[in-house]
Amino acid sequence: MNFEIYPTEDFQKSFKKLTKRHRSLVADMKEFVKSLKKDPYQGTELSQGIRKISMAITSKGRGKSGGARIITYTVQFDEFGGKVFLLDIYDKGDFSTIDESVIKAKIRDLEL
Predict the structure, then answer these.
(1) Beta strands 2-7 and 81-91: pairing type?
(2) How far apart are CA 61 and CA 56, in angstroms?
């Protein structure tokens, strides 16, 4: 399968804020994107196409359970591929979860 990864504006803003606190986040994200291209359906499905994926932040030293959460929206065009939108990223220490209505509003803003 060939999936393209698209970070949204909200994701980029949140990511920039987190990189100021966690120096390893840029390298961790590169590894995450590689794994996401191989398996876009990893993580916990919240709703159809919406997933919450745990990602370790190396500089925190707590593994995936104490790391970041990334909300994705996957659109599969055919059996060969599709698009994965990175909707948001947050530190689990900041939020335990994100409201589903907020996620759905972000998807509506994508203008697919």
Answers:
(1) parallel
(2) 8
